[in-house]
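Good morning,

Both structures are done.
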Amino acid sequence: MAAGNSTAGDPIADSLDGVLKPSVAVFLEHHHKVAKYRNSDFPMERSRFREFRNDLVSEFIQALNLEDWVVRNPSSKDSPIATWFKDRVVARKEIHGVRVEIHAVTIHPSGLVVPAVVCLPAGDVKVPGVCTFSGHSGRGLNDMVVNLESYQQGIATRLAQAGIASIAVEKIDTGYLSRNGARGVDEKEIASLLLGHREVLRAHQIRACIAAVEILAAHPRVDETRIGATGVSLGGWLTIQTAMFNDRIKAVADFGRKTRTISTEMTPAKYRGQGDLCHIIPGILALCGRNIHPLALAPMPMLAGHGIKDTGSHAEHLENYRQLGEAQYQRLGARDNYTYLVHAGGDTMPAQETIAWFRKQFGMGEEK
């Protein structure tokens, strides 16, 4: 027991004083020792980098049971995973002057029906498409489509207004899928229930995200060779991970928080556990911290960033994200494919900058 923690009059405590460490301390020390990949391993040469990428993607696929959901080298609009989801359009409307399709997507084998909204630019020509994934919110899908002033800035609608088709998919434990039916968060309840079935919440969310990519690519208005993905906060992490499993995604704008899972400076006294159950994915921490995950997409074009008012991200981003990304892309001969943006907001979607970046990636020029 740590010095000073003995309890007067407790004969067991007195006997153990100075003998034991708190279990939190033991397991934190173990965590810091076992990680296979660390910041100091990067940048990597091509052969070593391929090994790292294969390790990480394979571990994610196994942990999330996604073997049947991976899309590699698709050659047409036809989806190679079409048997694993069923899509139907339940309504067509106009929101903020944008034509939208409201979809109900059934995910197999769970039977979960996930709402998604396709937002279409004016006209009838084929256009690029961007998948938008929700961060933590009581109204994820609404934030991305209806509420242009939310922290997610109605990004799906704004993309369509700028000439890019989009699809927004609900966070499966919130919003229209919450018990309230419009606003709410059931993350703890669902995540803890699934753990009893050897399943994690992220697996079900990623399946919905992968299905959304396929739905957008199959849409007759969309050029399936020009597909991107974006999200803020949790949505940034969903963007990175979905791009690992679906080769249709050719460019990503990641505004997930630029903090580490557990910092190397973390002490037992300060540690408060993993706050968001949806971020717990078995086995991944044994490979690396989450700040290393985005590197697996290199040399794919990437816009990464955070808001300067997000003090946690601002304190950690340079050493743990930006410098690693710049160095790895440079080592792979693709430095121009990596852009890091520090925007004026907080943990928010910089819609204007994101849209401008995608238009550039898709060869659309500046918005008029």
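Second structure follows.
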Amino acid sequence: MLFNRNLSEVYSGLIVIYGLYKIFASKNRDGSAHIFAAYSMGIEVLFRMNSGGLGYEWGKYAAVLLLMAGFLVEKMKKETPVIYLMFLALLIPSIFVIDYPTFDRSRQMVSFNLSGPITLAVSTIYFYRRKMTPPQLRKLLLSMLYPIAAMSVFIYFRAGDLETVEFTTESNFQASGGFGPNQVSTIFGLGILIIAIAHFQSIRLFKLKFVNIILLFAFLIRGLATFSRGGMLAPLLAIFLCIIIMTFLDANFKTKLNKVVFAFMFVFIIGILGFNYVNDVSEGLLEMRFKGESMYNKEKSNIFSGRDEIFAEDIEIFENNVLVGVGPGMSMEKRAEISGVETAAHIEYSRLLAEHGVFGIIAILIIVIFPVKYFIKTKSVDNRIMLILCITFVFFTMGHAAMRTAAPGFIYGMAFINIIRRRE
């Protein structure tokens, strides 16, 4: 099924159909909506790799549909963050200024560029203050982790052993199974984040502890081999910031500190071993990649992989279209007019500015300020940990991979889960 496009298309349809059946049959009392949505998000890039799934944006559509169905049919009453409906409304005006040659092209570009923010809003509305016990959270985490593990197996069989890969100082399509290294690295980074969340929340994912270590090492090795740095840096930054912020701001965190610091040191050691292994296999090119050096031009810095130029071009587009921007996806064509090169969006923040103008500024403020207010408001150590880990990962990912996958939007919503311990 992993390698067969037709079978994966059928499988993607069955995921949604069976998910909807479970949601309506149980009235979402068992959390079927977020379980199937999480699985859809986790398997999205794997489907893209073999051109399977019901369309390129299937992962986002499936997650949104399943979460909306669960939210609408369940009888549980909880607070709804209405401001995220406003967030969605802010993205509508720019649709009316798009200028594509055909309706089909317009539909595709609007869908591709708005499906990510829609996933974020729907996920937040669904997960906000949703009560979950550690066993329920474990089930959610595993629903994402299993397809990521399957993706690592798929890449191993498609790309082969790393010794057979031809490395340069650029992102490596061969090592990522012939698909976009940026997306593959991001999903492997998500796998590392999931394992970190489980450890911070004292959740045992597997009966055998070494399974965590094997998966962690596999995600790290294959993620580093893509030479796409952002996906690997995002979870490490999230772990580091969580320890620092919680240590200084929350006295109750000290009860977990020794265990967490030990885990961080363990991950750090695994990271060093993994980095050295891939660096040796690539004959030192991985180190050059992380330093921003090029094997072709040692005088030229490649630390941002051209994202600084994309950011500058987006700002120029924004300055010329301040009110409503140029419309979803139109920034790519405008960048081509400026630089002569048609490049896709990599930075969600500057994309929102270029394509949505002033409304984009307000949208950015919403997704940044709301989590800060939530952090201040909540006093739960578990909830604060969840927020920092998820939001840091999302904000960093949106800075290097925009919202090409469903992962940033879905994980953003997960940040607001209300974790309930039985003793409470």
